Amino acid sequence: MSPEKPSVLITGANGFVGSRLCRTFLENGFEVIAGVRKTASLAQLEGLDITYRYGDVCMPETLPGMVTGVDYIVHNAGVVKVKRNERFFEVNEGGTRALFDAIARHNPGVRKVIYVSSLAAAGPSKPGAPRQESDPPIPLTAYARSKLAGETAALSFSDRFSVVAVRPSGVYGPGDRENFAFFLALSLRVKPLIGKTGRKIQLVHVDDLCRGIYLAVTTSTPSEAVYFIAEDRSYTMKELIRIIRQVVGKAAVPLYIPAAPFKVIAAFSQRILKLFNVTPMLTPEKADELLGSWEVSTARARDELGFQSSIAFEEGARQTFEWYKKEGWL
């Protein structure tokens, strides 16, 4: 630990969010340590002045060497897609508990640990009532329940060292795979409209998220604090699709799929893909999640962290589309 140049360990550093987190902390004068599995692809970290430490949250014996002697830790590693739901809990809950136990045993003087949770852990909002951090969680999916369980496990260590949880809303930006399908559909001149198009959704650009996490690390906060990190405004589903269509720059034919048929498609997709041993991203649970409203209050992050989003969806969607084109995805 160096008082002149603080160090931060970022687990899951090789992924979409993790690699951008590494860049954010490097730009702010941190010594960055990437916590990755030995089998992980490091392509997104090429050229960065970082140190690698290898470990797997599901292999507790690998964790002491990863967590020792660092000032701050951002636990970003987790799984979002699995072949069996139990795996969500093995990694997102059990892995989190194992990591925090290793920190308590081998780095009890750590300054602060951030657990990167998810808005899914809190659950959807009711129309006109953005969720607040104090609202009782109502997770809809196995993934969401596992992230909430991981959050609970992380915060249970708050009597031993400072722990903060951040709950990002839907994350997008250059390199994002989850929202790529919308850009692809509109590039193919199809405008997908699913369920009630007036439902509200709040997103966050990956760079805004990373800045929010950086502020959670460097700002004095109460231990056990939880923060929503999102763009300051929400959009209707119809507005989001309209913005992407404008960015793509092509006329598109509307394809409206009501909620009930969408759920049938999700169930059919899950069964077919399992026959071919392919992990489905769209499941009946996920369909229920996608059909919900997702609005949050960012007041606590603003008041306690000084966080305000800087990238509106219009700008972020354009950045993302240009990246997809540059990388040959579109």
Features:
alpha/beta, seven-stranded parallel sheet, 330 residues, 12 helices, globular
Task: Describe what this molecule looks like in 3D.
The chain is of the alpha/beta class and 330 residues long. It has a domain at 7-177 and 203-231 and 294-311: NAD(P)-binding Rossmann-like Domain (Rossmann fold, 3-Layer(aba) Sandwich). It has helices spanning 16-27, 64-67, 86-106, 119-122, 142-155, 180-187, 206-218, 237-248, 259-275, 284-290, 299-305, 313-326, and strands spanning 7-11, 31-36, 51-54, 72-75, 112-116, 163-168, 170-172, 190-194, 200-201, 203-205, 225-229, 235-236, 253-257. A 7-stranded parallel beta sheet has the order 3-2-1-4-5-6-11, sandwiched between helices. Strands 7-10 form a two-stranded parallel ribbon. Strand 4, helix 3 and strand 5 (112-116) form a beta-alpha-beta unit. The radius of gyration is 20 Å and the shape is globular. The model has no long low-confidence stretch (mean pLDDT 94).
User: Please, what is the CATH homologous superfamily of the domain at 7-177 and 203-231 and 294-311?
Assistant: NAD(P)-binding Rossmann-like Domain
Unreliable stretches covering 5 or more consecutive residues: none
Distance between the termini: 44 Å
- What is the 3D shape? globular
Cross-sheet strand order for the largest sheet: 3-2-1-4-5-6-11
Order of helices and strands: EHEEHEHEHHEEHEEEHEEHEHHHH
Average residue pLDDT: 94
Into which percentage range does the β-strand content fall? 15-25%
Please tell me how large the radius of gyration is.
20 Å
SSE class: alpha/beta
CATH topology of the domain at 7-177 and 203-231 and 294-311: Rossmann fold
CATH structural class of the domain at 7-177 and 203-231 and 294-311:
Alpha Beta
Number of strands: 13
Helix content: 40-55%
Number of helices: 12
CATH architecture tag of the domain at 7-177 and 203-231 and 294-311: 3-Layer(aba) Sandwich
Largest sheet: 7 strands, parallel
